[in-house]
Amino acid sequence: MDDIFAGGFTDAPRQSADAFRAALEAMARPGTRHALQAQAPAPLSPAAAALILTLTDTGTPLHLAGAHDTDAVRRWIGFHTGAPICPAAEAQFAIGTWDALHPLDRFAMGDAEYPDRSATLIVEMAFGRPTHRLTGPGIDGHLDAHIPGDRPVAFPLGLDLFLTSGGEMSALPRTTRLEAL
Amino acid sequence: MDDYNFAYLDEDTKRMIRRALLKAVAIPGYQVPFSSREMPMPYGWGTGGVQVTAACLKPDDTLKVIDQGADDTTNAVSIRKFFQRTAEVAVTERTQDATIIQTRHRIPEAPLQPGQIMVFQVPIPEPLRFLEPRETETRRMHALEDYGLMQVKLYEDIARHGEIATAYAYPVKVEDRYVMDPSPIPKFDNPKMNDSPALMLFGAGREQRIYALPPHTKVESLDFEDFPFVAGKADHPCAICGSTESYLDEIITDDAGSRMFVCSDTSYCQERSVQ
User: Fold this and answer.
1) For the residues B245-254, what does the mean pLDDT come to?
2) Of B29, B46, B48, B49, which one is the catalytic site residue?
3) Of the four listed, A75, B51, B80, B242, which is most buried by Cβ atoms within 10 Å?
4) pLDDT at B1
5) What's the pTM value of the predicted model, to 2 decimals?
6) Cβ of B139 and A113 within 8 Å?
7) Which value, in Å, is the radius of gyration of the alpha carbons in chain A?
8) Measured over all CA atoms, what is the biggest interatomic distance in chain A, rounded to whole angstroms?
9) Are A28 and B59 an interchain contact pair (Cβ–Cβ within 8 Å)?
């Protein structure tokens, strides 16, 4: 899909409300999967496109990592959200594959007085078999899920992740403890 | 209904609040600053809660609004009507039927369920504010996890009154890290926050702060080994439904000192009375 004008929400208030609630549920219940749909130029997945439409605007610097930094993606994001594209260190949001996002210590983790000033990474991947056992806030006991790998955390500092796979999305806040299966 | 945007707020504002909510959920108990808007109601009437609810509502939600447990008092009725008009969502008084419950100073008696969202109206989000008025200092105290002052305050309660006299807005510690103000709910409700199946969101409009408790989060009321936390209530049955489990309001009925105790949760009380 190369038409940068297509693929946005047709009824933004209601569609973004539905998409945000999926994102909120995902962040509140780490590892659970939620459906999300919007159409954007490749390689942006439908779920990642919906997150970008729902959460970013002219006030949120966005980093495109690796193969996601294409002219079509830049123009699509520019038209639909106006989010400025920026280097990793300045990013409030970043999007790319797990490998392309590395090294993760390029991203803001917040500081002791403002741990919320940290980047949110949208990790494009393909969900498969569970790789890790998840415990922590939002999880009743434990949950097994497919996680791309560990990330730097020094609670309350850390990175919060959305994991997107086609039209599905889950989240991994900094509080979730991982144990490889 | 095209006179307002869905759920009143403009989309830029909702995105800003939504980003703050996601960080609040990711850092349980930490107060995320947000750019609070003027709402068509005065500060102190739940502008923080209303903004959080507006950012969360989706068209198929069922909303319940309570004020001190009651569905039928001015604050609850006006906020419920506000969202009926601006978001055209379904409303209910039954806790079990609601997907979002906006509350002023109570947690319902009926057990909350997975998937439900509680939205608390918060007047003063900073639990240390009455002990240290400077925001720069309280922010540093949270950063350094320096909560000795709060323990001293509870100790002084014991020294003066023989017990911890704080009866509402009783401070809690979240996941062994942040001390948090649970909003002015009675301490009777504090245990309901620990390991709750529901997501809890807190909005302070005037003070411009949002914070959150994800489901199944460890929430402990502060206390001492020799003076453990006690979730107290009036030692009476409800005069209407007879419940001995629920939190009670004391109602003065004449000038001669007569009084009665009734459930503060009107939905719970009504359902029990009908049975």
Assistant:
1) 94
2) B29
3) B51
4) 55
5) 0.97
6) yes
7) 15
8) 46
9) no
Number of CB atoms found within 10 A of residue B45's CB? 18
Q: How near does any CA of chain B get to the CA of A117, in Å?
A: 9
Residue B188 CA to residue B246 CA, distance in Å, equals 9
Tell me the three-class secondary structure of B159-205, residue by residue: HHHCCCCCCECCCEEECCCEEECCCCCEHHHHHHHCCCCCEEEEEEC
Among partner residues B18, B143, B175, which is closest to A112 by beta-carbon distance? B143
Query: Distance of CA B146 to CAs A130, B128, B173, Å?
Result: 39, 10, 12
Compare CB distances from B25 to A21, A155, A173 and report the shortest one's residue. Answer: A173
What's the confidence (pLDDT) of residue A121? Answer: 98
Chain A environment of B14 (Cβ under 8 Å): 16-17, 20
Most B CBs within 10 Å: which of A9, A10, A11, A27, as the mutation test of the B interface? A27
User: Has the ipTM of the complex gone over 0.95?
Assistant: yes
Q: CA-CA distance, A40 to A73, in Å (whole number)?
A: 7
Q: Say how many CB pairs under 8 Å bridge A and B.
A: 112
> Rounded to an integer, what distance in angstroms lies between the CA atom of residue B54 and that of residue B13?
10
Q: Do A57 and B18 touch (CB under 8 A)?
A: no
Distance CA B87, CA B91 (A): 11
Give contacts of B 9-38 with A, CB under 8 A.
Answer: 11-12, 14-16, 18-28, 30, 32-33
CB contact under 8 A, B177 and A113: no
Pick among 3.40.50.11310, 3.40.50.2300, 3.40.50.10700, 3.40.50.300: CATH of A12-180: 3.40.50.11310
The token duo for B197 is: 């199946």
B29 is catalytic: yes
Chain-wide mean pLDDT for chain B?
95
The pLDDT of residue B2 is 67
Distance CA A152, CA A171 (A): 15
- Tell me the pLDDT tens digit for each residue of B98-121: 999 999 999 999 999 999 999 999
Look at residue B3 in the predicted model and tell me its pLDDT. 79
Q: Mean of the per-residue pLDDT values for chain A?
A: 96
CA B73 to mean position of chain CA atoms:
17
Query: Domain limits of chain A?
Result: 12-180
